[in-house]
# Entry
Amino acid sequence: MADYVKVALDAMGGDHAPAEVVKGAIEAVNEEKKVKIFLFGDESRIRQELSGYTYDSAQVEVVHASEVIGMSEPPVNAIRKKKDSSIVKGMAYVKQGECDAFVSAGSTGAVLVGGQVLVGRIKGVERPPLAPLIPTADGVTLLLDCGANVDARPSQLVQFAKMGSVYMENVVGVKDPKVGILNIGAEEEKGNALVKETFPLLKNCPDINFVGSVEARDVPLGAVDVVVCEAFTGNVLLKTYEGVGATLISAVKEGMLSSVRSKIGALMVKPALKKTLKKFDIEQYGGAPLLGLKGLVVKTHGSSKAIEIKNSIMQCVTFKEQHINEKIQEKITLTDPS
Amino acid sequence: MADYVKVALDAMGGDHAPAEVVKGAIEAVNEEKKVKIFLFGDESRIRQELSGYTYDSAQVEVVHASEVIGMSEPPVNAIRKKKDSSIVKGMAYVKQGECDAFVSAGSTGAVLVGGQVLVGRIKGVERPPLAPLIPTADGVTLLLDCGANVDARPSQLVQFAKMGSVYMENVVGVKDPKVGILNIGAEEEKGNALVKETFPLLKNCPDINFVGSVEARDVPLGAVDVVVCEAFTGNVLLKTYEGVGATLISAVKEGMLSSVRSKIGALMVKPALKKTLKKFDIEQYGGAPLLGLKGLVVKTHGSSKAIEIKNSIMQCVTFKEQHINEKIQEKITLTDPS
# Structure
């Protein structure tokens, strides 16, 4: 029992909860014997979903939570008031050490606020960045911060660089990951006040592989492994990424179905194209971790299907087994430039 | 003669100068009898290019400029020192009223600095934003500012909204264009300090159609006609747009050529797909205007081919004929909220 990686899962969060969330949990436990899932939410609805599956019951536990935090509720208030919500109860399990990680497809704001307030930061971490992996031409890149903590300070960006490096090296397996600061030109003198102040700090940071500025246009090419930026800009980059990708892919599909001739052609290119587009499908990579917390919190897309839930759970296993938080703690404490 | 729209063209700017620039100029004069092009640059090289074309010689004039400002030269210094460069001389023609507009595919920095320093701002305009049109699912959207003037103030963003509205209504022909402020959520309380301060100003601005916040993911869908933001963020959005588009399109092409079966299919979908992708091809829309100057300055991509140069010239014609600057002047003066 003690060897399980224990994941608290918000069974009520996201557009397809609880059905797809429970399905993802079952797919995870059936693939990975080391994981145990705690499903938080309406017990009877969860049990009803569970009744359709075969799985090792030692790997799944249901914890009743009578409340749900809605997608558009003001997060600070919701976290404070809804003590019996799946998010607040699930995070409490992480805080108390009964679970190692928490995964939710629910309200981003509530997950971010709850992560800081309920789970708490690792000592020395100023801000926990939300750090999604984004697909690139030759793999994935970690983008941080994409969270709600806008208007960051330079010292915080330096911590993002360190935490991102630990994650890419140990969870994704990229040796000596290249770190770039998001900028509007390649030269050191380019940028806004924040970038100009942060650049020399990153340059002088001994334990990361800082390669300088990275322009947004080079991010999809995989120019660097870790992109460091302030949360407002990071959010704009991430959402543009998703928006342009989705719009282009649907335009390509629509274009291919516009004539009889192209419809036949579309059938022939479909298998090959599917493989290509799958690489750019953000669901393949699971949710985004909120780094620097005492325990792991993973936020998956509101639109998450079972596959993304499963991948998010798998990420928690690697995170725990690779001792990411211990490594973050060490990196933050040892070389804090401030 | 007096009826010509006179465009100063930097014949030495961009990756394909002077050949493609001259070609674009000739295509423009052969299509539009009302335009006269002044080609600035190395006279003998320009004349050599011109010798291959048939055109009305009254519509083309060559003005020798012995210097070229390089893409990576520090712009302020280059504008100050290289008095005989194609950019400085071309802009001087606009300043002196000998030309109505200036078009360049050369150094963005030099064009932005030159626009402000040499051409000068319309009275009351705090900052001239660089305002590219970006393709969306159902048309185009104007994104401003994407220039080099980062860390803008709220009053400047309000001016961007006004100038952008004038441009979309009169150059692109969108009636009562919808203006959105780029934000990381739809709610009014979301955003960084700049957005929170600007939001109420835009809301209270009587002569624009402000619809609230727009998330980056909804920009490609054409959610609004004018997106207002600070230049650093705007540049990140624009470059992500271009980068993801280019990466995805090349991945789609590569995917389609990965098997014999898909290669045959690719031939069949090609005509239909070409039409679709053309819509997302940024070159179709000509360069980005620098709004709020006494005269028009248009910056086209460094990689511009003849088609983009021609479209940029055509944009100058509409700009002049629609009296955009007079309309901007009026809007800025009448309702300045500061």
